[in-house]
Amino acid sequence: MNVTIEEIRDLIESAESMAEMDTLKNDVPLTEQEVDSLDMANILLLLEEKYELKIPDKDTKLLQTIDGIVVYLKSK
Amino acid sequence: MLGIENIASYIAEEKKSNYDLKDKFELDNDFIENKIGVKQRALKDVGLASSDMCVRAFENLQKKATIEPDAIDCCIVVTQNPDFNIPHTSAVVHGKLELPTTCACFDISLGCSGFVYGLSNIIAFMKSNGMKKGLLFTSDQYSNIVDENDKNTALLFGDAATVTLISDDATLIPLDFSFGTNGKDYVELICEDKLYMNGRAVFSFTATTAPKHIKALLNKYNLTDNDIGKYYLHQGSKYIVDTIRKRLKVDEKKVPFDMAEYGNTISSSIPIILEKDIDDLPKGNYILSAFGVGLSWASAIIQKS
Questions:
Q1: B200–A60: do the CB atoms touch at under 8 Å?
Q2: Looking at per-residue confidence, does A44 or A15 come out higher?
Q3: Which residue ranges make up each domain of chain B?
Q4: Does the structural domain B3-167 have CATH classification 3.40.50.300?
Q5: Phi and psi torsions of B230, nearest 5°
Q6: Do the chains contact at B207 and A42, CB–CB below 8 Å?
């Protein structure tokens, strides 16, 4: 699957979390950057809807960073 | 035509602050106020059963409407926290309110979608049996089943009951109902010993199902957002109410949020808000939509004429 860092950052921004997009780091867990558990649930749902896939609960540990999300989606 | 004549509620008096749990669950004020949306939870007295809360709601109804118990033809209780496994809680309520022996009683075992299901049930039952006055109760006490160490549930729920008087002298009349169930995912919100909720699964289910369900009901009658006065959504959390509103692209003023001072009261959440609005609603169409344990959902269009 083709996916870019920019697409994922745009998707995270659309989730309207408290994260500062200007300083949001790609290699640091989102939950350490003002993205709380409810925002993460929303981001995972938005990913499922945009990329038309089901993300099992067991896979969510692989999607904690923006880099991790890109790697995961590229593997699909 | 049968519909809602009046509503009253009982919200447990004791409140427990979620701010006191900030350290325990590593919370900040934004999460409490703008995500969960519950500042404090209503907790019933130990020993107060579902039927007792129904009685208190009924006593509050009597303060604002003349109710002759002998005129009640049916009494339905929506609860998943019954007084006993056997008998049904509606029979216990019947006894405590000294309703007539001609009064039909049964329970409905549903959670958050229960009020909308119950409203359809009681009106259909009364119509088909020529009944004039009925009482629809909702009553749940999640304080009995919540694990206080579970962040997913410990911050959310409050204890409450409501009673809705159904009669021909109605203020709000349902136009139509729509229902749904996804029983394959029942394990995502379940109580075996204590309540378990897969927050992500319940959020995804609600955020995807509720907006589509409401839109389908509107489309059935060629209604648009302009035709709807307000959307009364089950108060699952502020985040879920906000998410559904945003997905529907509806103005914030049209979607009441009212759980901050008492919590998610399960099937009582919609009638608690309706009670506050019922006397002041202008003529028009209103949406009820509720979703939760089952997984179950139900929506209705109701009309004020």
A1: yes
A2: A44
A3: 3-167, 172-304
A4: no
A5: -150, 155
A6: yes
Burial B141-179 (b: 16+ CB within 10 A, else e): bbbebbeeeebbbbbbbbbbbbbbbbbeebbbebeebbe
Q: Does domain B172-304 have CATH number 3.40.47.10?
A: yes
Indicate yes or no: CB of B204 within 8 angstroms of CB of A45: yes
User: Which chain A positions have a beta carbon within 8 Å of B31's beta carbon?
Assistant: 36, 38
Least confident span in A2-6, B240-244, B267-271, B298-302: A2-6
* CB spacing of B203 vs A18 below 8 angstroms: no
Contact B204 A60 (CB under 8 A): no
Shortest Cα distance, chain A CAs vs residue B200, angstroms: 5
A49 neighbourhood in chain B, CB within 8 Å: 208
For residue range B108-149, list pLDDT tens digits in order: 999 999 999 999 999 999 999 999 999 999 999 999 999 999
Same CATH topology for B3-167 and B172-304? Answer: yes
CA distances from residue B1 to B165, B221, B254, B277, B281 in whole angstroms, order as listed: 13, 20, 27, 21, 19
Residue type, B135: L
- Return mean pLDDT, chain B: 95
Output the CA angle A62-B202-B164, nearest 5 degrees.
Answer: 165
All structural domains of chain A: 5-74 (1.10.1200.10)
Q: Does B40 touch chain A (CB under 8 A)?
A: no
Rounded average pLDDT over B151-169: 95
Average pLDDT in the B196-209 region?
92
Q: Is the ipTM of this complex over 0.90?
A: no
pLDDT digits (tens, 9 = 90+) for B206-241: 999 999 999 999 999 999 999 999 999 999 999 999
CB-closest option in A18, A37, A48 to B199: A37
Mean pLDDT, range A21-44, rounded to an integer: 90
Chain B partners of A37 at a C-beta cutoff of 8 Å?
199
Q: Is B250 helix (H, G, I), strand (E, B) or coil?
A: coil
Interatomic CA distance for residues B25 and B153, integer angstroms = 12
Per the CB < 8 Å rule, is A60 touching B35? no
